[in-house]
User: What shape does this take?
Amino acid sequence: MSPHSSRSCKPRLWAIPANFVRVLTLALTAIGSIFISTLTAQNAPVAPVEFTNVTAAAGIKFKHFKGNDGISINREEFGPGVCVADFDGDGWQDIYFVNGRDLYSRGISVTNALYHNNHDGTCCVWGDFDNDGFPDLFVTQYGKNVLYHNNGNGTFTDVTDKAGVGGLESGLFHSGATFFDYDRDGWLDLYVGSYVNLGDKRYCKLGDVLSSCAPSEYKGSPDALYHNNHDGTFTNVAQKAGIYQPQGKNLSVQAADYDNDGWPDLFVANDGLNAYLYHNERNGTFKEIGLSVGMAVTSRGTVMAAMCISLGDYDNDGQLDLYISDFQRSSDHIWHKSGDHPTDTGRA
Assistant: This one.
């Protein structure tokens, strides 16, 4: 196994509040990372939870294709992506799986998979960007991102070019994404993270062994903030909004009202760099406050190889807390928010 082969989040079972601004706040990449955010505070003791593997019984036969040629490289180390939504409005959650692809032009055909829920226990950011009552699907990947419009009849149409969200202006290696209404105009906007600029460098050496390269070997790529123009198109306003970070190495992003002022803020986790907390200034712009409030680095002053973010009020005190998973053989971290500033409570 490559020393960098665990740089992604592994799929997990999870639960999502049904009333969260019409959107399941997941972020995924078509090369496979899945970034999942859900924590729910409970007032009463929770009974032990037991899970049963029903994959085969549900008829899910998806198999992820890595696409490498024997030596693992960064693009396929992220694993498969997955997201869930009721795309046809029948009251049952359906599942979309994101596959890898043939990286070396060998003629191998690979497709993603959408499993419709048969209502019998069977069955990557979703969001209703045009307010027609049907969740649409946005997929990030290495290369051009894709936005699928839900036609409301069980089919989808690729509207990427019309919408202007292909993302090539931000590089090729796209990562986490989230729909959220940052200006509260009633229309979902879209934040899309980017990872690194791979250039021509495919492998590094550890002694005499060829391996994938650490992210420190590459330059970062800027993220994008797409403002919804209310007509099926989007405009990238990252620089205007004050969140343009050309050297960022984003793997996960979450939108939430960090300070309970009624406006959604953004937390962006980077791989080997300071994390960003963008405070919503309520005028179409954001201010980066991660370092000043103690969320940019750990309590030891070190940066994280942040893989995934989960936000939730774990102690039911009315304030959002933060969980960040780190790289393999590194400890995860929990930030407990009390008052104006969060505190890194240590390794989890």
The two ends are 25 Å apart (CA to CA).
